[in-house]
UniProtKB/TrEMBL annotation:
Organism of provenance: Flavobacterium alvei
Gene Ontology MF terms: beta-phosphoglucomutase activity; magnesium ion binding; sugar-phosphatase activity
Gene designation: pgmB
Binding site for Mg(2+): D9, D11, E169, D170
UniProt record similarity statement: Belongs to the HAD-like hydrolase superfamily. CbbY/CbbZ/Gph/YieH family.
NCBIfam families per the UniProt record, alphabetical: bPGM (TIGR01990), HAD-SF-IA-v3 (TIGR01509), PGMB-YQAB-SF (TIGR02009)
Binding site for substrate: 9-11, 25, 44-49, 52, 76, 114-118, 145
Protein known as: Beta-phosphoglucomutase
Length: 217
């Protein structure tokens, strides 16, 4: 059997943290006096913290000096982290653990490819850290998704070619990054949003072992 690299995004793929990012950004938008919707939030998925703030300020037509931006970035992250204090394995999304365990059983390589700078503590809190053979997060890359840097680095650390790498992603930017990087993109979410993904599942409970077996072949 072949060995492939299975690269997981974190927020919205392994853990249900997208809702906390949304709440923390919404608080910033509320304080600045404009609306921030779930639809707006799709634009931020997979996008770095700094770029996310710029997008939000563009949506609200707010121009602000860097000093204010820095303060909001700190506020957002502190608020986001406050939601994670009691985080444990109950926040792992349905179907993720069976797939991680199956990949381990099949001796496949597993990496994290996330834009978040909070990735490691989240993996620790959810008890998933030891599953990963390589971790690439927002602290390791300078180009945000849809740039493929995060996934290419993960594949490199696993000594695997892009064409032998499979990426699980819930964001448009992340699916595009996987495609641009020459990897197999697997969207986790809605077809309306993730139509660029090569394969699509509503969540991991819909993915069976045969799908993984076919990727490994
Ligand atoms: C991505 C999320 O995984 O990480 C984005 O989808 C988030 O919503 C980005 O902005 C950066 O995360 P953090 O934890 O470094 O602010
Ligand atoms: Mg995500």
């Amino acid at each position: 059997m072949n060995t492939k690299a299975f690269i997981f995004d974190l927020d919205g793929v392994i853990v249900d943290t997208a809702k906390y990012h949304f709440l923390a950004w919404k608080k910033i938008a509320d304080s600045l006096g404009f609306e921030f919707t779930h639809q707006n939030n799709e634009l931020l998925k997979g996008v770095s913290r700094v770029r996310s703030l710029d997008i939000i300020l563009e949506l609200g037509k707010v121009k602000a000096p860097q000093e204010d931006k820095n303060r909001w970035l700190i506020q957002k992250n502190e608020d986001y982290l406050s939601y994670l204090v009691d985080m444990d394995e109950s926040e792992i999304l349905p179907g993720v653990m069976p797939i991680l365990n199956y990949l381990k059983e099949k001796k496949q390589l597993i990496a994290l490819g996330s834009a978040s700078k909070n990735a490691r503590p989240i993996l620790e809190k959810t008890g998933t850290l030891s599953y990963f053979d390589a971790i690439v997060d927002g602290n390791d890359v300078s180009n945000a998704k849809p740039d493929p840097e995060v996934f290419l680095l993960a594949a490199k650390l696993l000594n695997t070619k892009p064409e032998d790498s499979i990426v699980f992603e819930d964001s448009v930017a992340g699916v595009q990054a996987a495609n641009i990087g020459g990897m197999t993109s697997v969207g986790i979410g809605e077809a309306a949003t993730l139509h660029e993904a090569k394969y699509l599942f509503k969540d991991f409970t819909q993915m069976d072992k045969t799908f993984i077996d076919n990727l490994i072949k």
